[in-house]
């Protein structure tokens, strides 16, 4: 396959576009899950200051 054609450049651009959408969506999911993880690992001030 000749990689110096317009068709190959368009295909490469489409693949790049799709992968960028996947990456941005993945980052969005991680940022959505952070508050849920914060609720699971909640710490009280008494347990932190009280020591063991």
Description:
It is a single chain. This protein is 79% helix and 0% strand. The chain is an all-alpha fold. The termini are far apart.
State the main characteristics.
52 residues, mainly alpha, 2 helices, 0% strand
Tell me the number of strands: 0
Oligomer: single chain
Approximate helicity band? over 70%
Radius of gyration: 23 Å
Q: In sequence order, what are the helices and strands, one letter per element?
A: HH
Taking the sheet with the most strands, its summary is: none
Number of helices: 2
Q: Structural class, please? A: mainly alpha
Strand content: under 5%
Global shape: rod-shaped
List unreliable stretches of 5+ residues: none
First-last Cα distance: 66 Å
What number is the mean pLDDT?
A: 86
SSE diagram, text form:
Elements: H1 6-40, H2 45-50
Quick overview:
This protein has two helices and no strands.
